[in-house]
């Protein structure tokens, strides 16, 4: 809080708020207050009820019981319209924008009268220019949203809310797809908004952001508040422990790498969005690829996995690979955990046990008399679920019924438990909570120490620095350079990710 | 001289044949830009054609007849909306259900009321749309004026902005505090009225009375024109004119007898298939088209 005398009445107060979806009690009697003109964080694991709670405040869902007070007055919020009228705006994790329309059209969508637009748009432009000045955000109002970068789209969402004169702004996982640079800009804008008297609520599972940005933090676990503290009084380890309910290891503990024979060797590999990429991966090492999203890393991973065509040298265990299709690469011992697991790694309609054998259905252990044995498939899935602590541990449960984090674990279990020589993995912890991150890191290091190799693409620099034994940097579809993790400061990585070459790559 | 007259006749015929297509395609445009697939244009046209002719024949007034056609179209649209917007049913199935139901129901009702083998009585001059200017009737003028009017509504008004938004991303509309279902119902109201009028053109302008199966697939042709026109008013009009021109040319070619008449008769449909195959899945399709709006369960 910057100004203690501003007001003693909280901007927002929740009293015993409850919400169930069928038998699932998502929010179980939550009460807390948010001080005016402050940045308030809400943390918790996946499925702790953070997003549901905020959707209740924003009227997207209706609470079963409890009270929501804005500026000390109880409000009956049953729709986003009510929330906006009460001065509450929300920036959703998945942006709520109409892509073919312009920035301006998206912003006036909710308020424009039914008649002629021209005057409305002129007045809106004046107001938006003032708001941009106040917040330090800047956007081309007549650009189509489809042509904007992710960071800019988020600014559209923020301006859209501010345009409706909201005093309380809720942001749901605002940094999940932002670059470090965009994250900084967002945080600056949020601090300015707070200093101008607005109240900010940030939902996140990134502890580092809580400690950097917020004034106060509410910790949720299993639909309940388990802690509500001033941020200055806690550290990340303490927050993690409150979230998970047990002490969590935040540091990655690993010994030095013992690289062995070369498994994968690329020489001048070219494909969609990347060109002339050369490097090698050896047994017993984790190689990380850093880069701003959209600079060819994802496509490179897909090409190695045989999912996208590629030209140029691709050697596996010393022999050039001619047949580059997914089945062949998989049979050769390359496993792949795709970046967008929900789109590329799962069939949402399948039962978990069927999702768990996708691409591995020819395994003789799953067959009897040439046909899939349901019993073997079920046992196989039960085993994976136990090892990866998937909840609920029910192989017949449909894939879409699992929470995001548990869906990830299903894919990870499928790809890691077949003892691959090389594991390709994109954004290993995107959308995964602290407890699961600890687990995934341990499995990756375990695979390395058993003589496997890991090729890791990540947009989280901390993760690369702590996991990888070597870090390659990509920019504009080219390999820009290589760094040892101990030399990889945020500044150096950031410069290279921006395309500034430091030294030529030793292929 | 001879050829010039022939071409003029061809163009005039194309404009007449394009009118019902255009009304139906615009009807489809309103529904589909709001995110509701409308395969039921055929059924709505058939019902509108019958209702228009029947009401005109009973009341003796062309305008009351047209109103009957409009209201019939709207009733079917609301039925479609109830199934697909309120109850989030499959839009394609609901649309086809309306077509099948109307194909059976309309001749039965016609027979029950008029006992003329599924037809309405012949309509007199006061019960029909007659030519008012330039050899065309009021419905044709209305249809072609509806094109710029639709363009203005869609792209220059707040209502149009919201209508397009709800067809692209209903979540954006909902979170902006606007009612998704109400917007889609509003689009369906316009849709029903236009589809009913498209039918009325067939029975009250192009012909003098309703006969069985008189839509003959025009509702589907209108959908093809809408797709070819990428869900935008002017290109959709041009697509309707193209299909109508092919139809008019086909009718003239039949008299020349160079090619087998069956082949010539199939030309407009072959053209439709070719055009749609060549256009492919190009842009313009509303992204939320065909997807019922369901609020996701919060994580």
UniProtKB/TrEMBL annotation, chain B:
InterPro entries: ABC_transp_permease. Pfam families: BPD_transp_2. It is a multi-pass membrane protein. Keywords: Cell membrane, Membrane, Transmembrane, Transmembrane helix. The keyword tRNA-binding does not apply. It is found in: Cell membrane. Signal peptide: none annotated. GO terms for molecular function: transmembrane transporter activity. GO terms for cellular component: plasma membrane. The chain crosses the membrane at residues 47-80, 92-114, 134-155, 188-208, 220-246, 258-279. Its main location: membrane. This is ABC transporter permease. It comes from Roseiterribacter gracilis.
